[in-house]
Amino acid sequence: MTDFLNDLFPEESAIPAHAQIPARIDQREYLVGGALVTWPGDQAPVLSPVFLKTKNGSEQKVLGSTPLLTSKEALEAMEAAVKAYDLGHGVWPMMTVAERIGHVEIFLEKMRAKRAEVVNLLMWEIGKTQKDSEREFDRTCDYIVDTINALKELDRNSARFVQEQGIMAQIRRVPLGVALCMGPYNYPLNETFSTLFPALILGNTVVFKPAKYGVLLIRPLLEAFRDSFPPGVINVIYGRGRETVGALMESGKIDVFAFIGTNKGANDLKRLHPKPHRLKAILGLDAKNPAIVLPDADLANAVSECVLGSLSFNGQRCTALKILYVHASRVEEFNKRFCAEVAKLKPGMPWEPGVGLTPLPEPGKTDYLKALVADAEKHGARVINENGGVSHQTFFYPAVLFPVNNKMRVYVEEQFGPLVPIVPYENVSEAIDYVVNSNFGQQVSIFGKDSRQLAKLIDAFSSQVGRININTQCQRGPDTFPFNGRKDSAEGTLSVADALRVFSIRTLVAAKITEGNKQIIGTIIRNRESSFLSTDYIF
Ligand code: G3H
């Protein structure tokens, strides 16, 4: 084993004070109907990707455990949400927008107080660096604030009446019902809350199941959820997906399915719903975003963006660059520079300053990555960077594979890890064909200077993917921009404003413009007889 791997995992005594964690967190509570219920049954162990050096060799840190609820408890949580929604007549959906915003603001304040605890758990549970964990936490708080502001604007715009062809109407957005929100392990806070809060603030009630990994980090927020919202508005369950969430879908009582994960998982769950036309789905799924480096690209920029794009958070981003097409005339230079930049990334523990490569949380992930490397080597690729593909326990040092071709698994499979396949090409049509024939259609990055060539590619890809990045890595942010995808990559569009639309439906009150109707509507508004038909708005 190379020296740096031998020294990678620390002794417990070497962990800095701010990153220390309780001996075990055995969480038995889950949130249903406004109460934290204690689960007496089986628990699922929570393992950290971090190993610790002990007298007996290196041992994987056991963080604790979470409840392995069954379909019974999951259904109880859903019934609590159904009751709180009460066919749209519950306290929460009937509240004014201003009142709901007030509840979310109370939550936000309580959430901010838990920053250090949640950030620490992000590091321990999924191996995200401290800087990125802090960024995830802050970005999530900003997202909630932006959602509040976007809703205020939406509410102001819907306060007025429209008149068209002799008909007057007031058009407002109303909730859809009970939402099931599930997020991914790579952004267990941000990606789940970016659907959870739009759903809540619009007046839906929610069942929320935390991600597969990054699950204990929701525990510090359970009291905040309980104390900030009326009973049943937000319910948090734990357990195996198929058993818990499957039962909810089969019940037919879920109205909105917000899921960030694999397209297979989404398909399996969606098809359990007995009335698919009643289920609105918003899905963020798999991706295999390519970078295309054109012959005239500024290589310094292309390399730095491609390293960021392919290896930040060890390549575990749905938006990561997962295959690099580099023109044959520049590929040698690109590879050299790329490997030199990869070598600068510091391996280590999430809390170490300047660290860029950390252990991976998914069990069996290093074996999977090794199998992809072996398969690529079998079909003619080499690992071209020093130490590429060496691994120790949960840690896998990035492997840059070259030359990659269409016989290799890594050419099509979403590696979701620190593997960088580089495909040399002669004609840009090869890269276009890759995107057109891919099952995925999230984003693409193009690196080059020639405006005509770039314009041609923009036009070729505008019907294939959701976002075309020029001389820039693929990414979701800024969160006000639309985030979506085609084919197996997504269903629906998210952004601060789009999410408000996704979790609501426009409903209108309309009447012919007659003196009688004007009087009736005027009276309802003046006397504040309806909470829907109202010209009140929030400043
Ligand atoms: O994993 C998918 C995330 O939405 C990616 O977000 O591009 O900001 O890292 P990001």
The CATH superfamily of the largest domain appears as Aldehyde Dehydrogenase, Chain A, domain 1
> Rg to the nearest angstrom?
25 Å
Give the bound compounds. Answer: glyceraldehyde-3-phosphate
Mean pLDDT: 97
How many separate structural domains? 2
- Give unreliable regions as ranges: none
Q: How many runs of DSSP E, i.e. beta strands?
A: 27
Oligomeric organization of the protein chains? single chain
Q: CATH topology of the largest domain, which one?
A: Aldehyde Dehydrogenase, Chain A, domain 1
Number of helices: 18
Strand content: 15-25%
Identify the strand order in the major beta sheet. Answer: 17-20-21-14-13-23-24
What general form does the structure show?
globular
Strand-pairing-aware structural class: alpha/beta
The major β-sheet equals: 7 strands, mixed
CATH C-level class of the largest domain is Alpha Beta
- What is the first-to-last residue Cα distance? 63 Å
Per CATH, the architecture of the largest domain is 3-Layer(aba) Sandwich
What helical percentage do the residues reach? 25-40%
